[in-house]
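Run FAD dependent oxidoreductase through structure prediction, thanks.
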Amino acid sequence: MLTWRLAQLPGAPALELRVNHTADATAASGGAVKAFEGDARQRELATESLAELLSSPTLQTWSGYQRSRFLSMRAVPDGLDDAVAAIDARLPGGIELADGTALADWHLQGERTVVIEHHAGYTTPGAWRDRVLDDCAKRGVTIVPGVAGPITERPDGSMRCGGTDYDLVVLATGPWTPQVLRANGFSESGYRTKSVQYALHDLVPGAGWRPPSFSDEVSGLYARPTAGGGVLVGLPAQKWDVDPDHPPLDEELLDRAAGLLTAMLPRLRLGRATRRVAAADCYRADPGLALAAVPGTTNLFTFTGGSGGSVKTALAASTAAATALGDFGATSQETTVGRRKGRS
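Sure, done. The structure for FAD dependent oxidoreductase is below.
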């Protein structure tokens, strides 16, 4: 996405994008898009991203956007009025705040305040990425299959990556970021990988009702209807520093998520799990997808840290990163890329 933004800048630099098609958090993502987030900065980025998505038929087609009402269930209502008002100002009529009576049919432990979004939905991030890559190629970006090779800083501040010199290199290597930094002698401090897991379930034959997309701050449970007529359900996995090439699958966690969902919604007739997904994503000490300079270097950056939910903020975050990079080059989802040294 960042490369795509840079390729559209006036007088865009020559860009080279190295793409590794290994399965990653983007391909595994559940793809939810919504405006409300607990963190103010992430809420701003998510709101701007959703506004752009809703305004662009092209992006909706590329992403496979399907509108689906989203309920964010919160334990503490403090500050929600202002947050909802700010989102409503940007996306009029798309959000409302409700008390627990809106969840009368839900079996919940404790009180909830509910943020209801009517313009939220879900996307297919892997397919969206492929469409963006196709458009990057049409815009003249050189796309090279491969992983981030040996990376060193040259005496003049330029970066050598995989035997080629670049004015600037950005690593958008997702959960491989700590590994790539460490392997090349740079500090990985502030970056960690974490397990991401969820399951896709059918409904019992003859059952038709499914809940809206939701996340529950108290239990951590999240779920959404799927395009195939089933339900995606998951809980946060508390497994840190996992190997992104071999992310763990916790069957007990996924069974617990399904059990919690059916206890919360007795009306739901959940069937068997048709697919269980195990992936990993990169978390930063300063959370959220953003451009960050690698300490001790001049022209090496990362663009990662989505913490399992970067699809919600990717459009606005990539715009901010492209603006920050100015006339220099960029990167892709799983690789390094940049502006080759000496090219205009």
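Residues 93 and 118 are 8 Å apart (CA to CA).
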